[in-house]
Amino acid sequence: MRRREFISFVGGAAAWPLAADAQPTEMRRIAVIIGVADDPQGQARLAAFTDGMRTLGWTDGRNVHFEIRFSGGSPDRARSDAADMVGIGPDVIVANGAAVIGALQQLTKTIPVVFAQVVDPVSSGFVESLARPGGNLTGFTSVDYSIGAKWLETLRGIAPGVVRVGVLRDPTLPAGSGQLGAIQGVAAVFGVSVVALDVREVGAIERAVSTFAKEPNGGMIVLATPLATVHRDVIVRLAALERLPTIYPYRYFVTSGGLISYGIDNTDLWWRSASYVDRILKGEKPSDLPVQAPTKYELAINLRTAKMLGLTVPPALIARADEVIE
Question: What is the per-residue pLDDT across 93-112, written as a single tens digit (0 to 9) for each?
Fold first, then answer.
């Protein structure tokens, strides 16, 4: 575990309320819909959530049972899993991603739903407002649109020759348009033009990236989508093949060989989600629990990839990084 993560974990753990001895004795059922079963990132998020629940006094097999489904980033699988979970009638459902949350919203107006990661729950129609969700859904946002300026600044900082930026996104997700618009809104400040690279399935990724790379001085921003997460190895490989400096939304793209990333710590949001599940199990309503924003961001740099691309990483950028792969 990295030193910063350890300090953050210890400090965060101190803020958790101590588990009361008088926890309910009846078995409560929590449905969890998460990413890919054999992906270490999905397992890490699940472990963070169950650890958070255990810290609050909820132990699997003693007073709570976790019903888990791995949707694998597929919209069809997400809808199927959502229907299955609603069918078992859990006390709370915990999930992430617009496809799953959208399906759950259509299927139930009574079962509390905590979303661990959603880009823009208001624009997506999941909640009435961040302060007053208003229905049976609440949780945690995963991206602030202002991060678009940070992505451009960081990308230009590590690759100053970039003047064309392709934004790899899934156009079927409402939040993708908001993120693209936010990036376009600040593009002139950084002296770049922005091109939307719309991909709906894995086969379109190679076509979009290869076509964009035909013109010089290009770089990419990869938005946080289930498609990008599941197929991150494909995207990282194409970025290297086409020699496109690319910034990613999560650290694990960089540990997979990507150049640089700036974004939230996913596991932190899943760990924090346990607090909302705990409060709901103790009687609070989702409509009264405000949607919370990310509080922990990470910058990661892969110096091996930078060298392969012929880039010199500024020392100031390295000094700011939470993780540097050499």
Answer: 999 888 899 999 999 999 99
